[in-house]
Structure formats: structure tokens, C-alpha cells
Amino acid sequence: MKLSKTVQRKVIVDELRKLKCHPTADELYEVVRRRLPRISLGTVYRNLDVLSASGEILRLGIGKKQMCFDGDTSRHYHLVCRCCGAVDDIMPGDMGNVEKELDSKLAGRILEASVSFSGYCEKCASRVKRDAQLS
Amino acid sequence: MKLSKTVQRKVIVDELRKLKCHPTADELYEVVRRRLPRISLGTVYRNLDVLSASGEILRLGIGKKQMCFDGDTSRHYHLVCRCCGAVDDIMPGDMGNVEKELDSKLAGRILEASVSFSGYCEKCASRVKRDAQLS
DNA sequence: CATTAATTTAAGAATCATTATCAAAACACA
DNA sequence: TGTGTTTTGATAATGATTCTTAAATTAATG
After folding, report:
1. CA–C1' span, A15 to C28, in Å?
2. Choosing among B82, B118, B130, which should be mutated to test the A contact, i.e. which has the most A CBs within 10 A?
3. Per-residue pLDDT for B68 more than 80?
4. pTM for this entry
């Protein structure tokens, strides 16, 4: 099956790449709708599917109810805040030797770029710490 | 709200701990049903909720359509096979200095025990390798 | 043990994210 | 431009999970 170039597909990729966050399908739908008011939510879902299958974008299954999507396909990680749900990027530079260690320890398996850690985002981490001091 | 001790709750925890795999709610329901034929799926869901909220079990959001659950709450990781969907355990001993590195790199954030890696399980990894040689 | 209040259950309805359906529109390509 | 393929929009269907309710079970208290 050949992939056609459609306006919808192009706008979806374009808007996703512009976003710094990791939107759900319906969040991206709201953004895309500003440029294509007639687009349907199903079209957004369908395109996020084919685009992630072809590797143009990332589909993030990070334990939330909804899938999230990421226009940045470079190797990086995610920290999902279990307090507020925010998804922060963790770039390879933040990881020290961790990547090298992982590669050697899991040699033979293919370790993919989209790995999620569960914890607290910076904002919630500081609030949690503050609350702990109060009690 | 106080947690009552019910037969259903006890059997659910018991059967989950006995399983080496990481079942979905309905998979565990089928197992539990052999001991409690009258139990309902909703009861399984409800108890998996309160049990994971209280930390007695783990709820794994590992990018699959359904949530998975783990009776082993000790610190360990998961490798989700993107070929067959299998969920393998990766124990701390398999991780070398990775944990120490992560702790120092993400200091101040609380890094939780249930972290999932995406890649191939051993079986699928060897088949992928074999297929690659053939082509 | 008996009474009363709180919690939990089973069954089924409801919700909501995602997928599927299908006729019409857009696209690819000769 | 014509023709076969792919995609779209609208909507229905699916399926995992949550909610609802009356009845049953459990906890707390005398």
C-alpha cells in the first residue's frame, strides 16, 4: 500500500513537530482543527497510526489511559509524572553512561529509543519535598 | 475508607502472586474464577485498583492496550517485546551500574521500580536475527 | 452474640478511547 | 484526462474499564 501525500497528513506531522509536549490524539486534533476545521478525529487517529508505523513519529505507551505521540524521533527518554501526568523529556546527555551500560547489558535485544520512567516531574518533586517537610 | 478482608480480595492477591507472568485483569479473572466461580470481572478490576493504590501489587502501564499487573513489588524492570508482546522481567542484577547511574542522574525525582523497556524478548530476538541472516 | 454502620459484592449499564465501515473525495500515474 | 488506488469525513461499532444499585458481607461496638 502506497502512502499518498495529503494535506491532512502533512498538517498533522507539522503541528505535532511544532509542539514541545506529548499530546494525545484528541489534543492534537484540537490543534490541527485550527488549520483544517473540517478534519475528523478518525483521520487524526488513522494518520497517527500510519505515521508511527512508518517511523515518522513516535507512539508513546506510557501507562496513561490515552496514547501520547511525539514528533521528535531522536533517541531520548521520558519521565512520566505520577503526580500530575506531565511527560518530560530526558535527553541522552542527561543519562551519563546509562545508555552504554544498557546496551551492553541487554546486548542482542534491540532497545528502542522511547523508554519511559515513572516518577515525579520537577515541579511536583519540589512540592512533594516541601509537603514532606511540613508534616 | 477502611479495607475489609474479603475472600475475593485474598484470592486475587494470592493467584496474582503465584503467577510468573504479568496478567491483564481478564486473564487474572479467568484464573481466579477457578476458585471463585461466582466472582465478577468488575470485582477483579476494583480490587486490582485498590491493591495497586495501596502498593500491595503493581499496575504496569507498558504501552499495551490493556493494563497488566504484577504481584512482585520488589525493585525490578520489564522488557516488553514489540514482536510478540511478552513481558520479561529484568532483575536489578542484570542491570550493572545502571541503577546507580540513574539514581544520581535523576536525583531529587523519585524513580519508581516499575520501568519498562521496549525491545525484543529472547525468543523473538533470535528469530529476528535468523530472519536477517536469511535475507 | 446482637445491632448497626460501613464496605464490598455481582450483575449489568454506562463511559470513553480507539477502530472499523463505507460512500464520496482526493490522489497517483500513465 | 481517465482510471484504479488511497484517503477522508461521518458515524457506527468495539472493547477495556468504570460506574451504579440493591443485596450480601464485614467491621465495630455494646
Report:
1. 25
2. B118
3. yes
4. 0.86
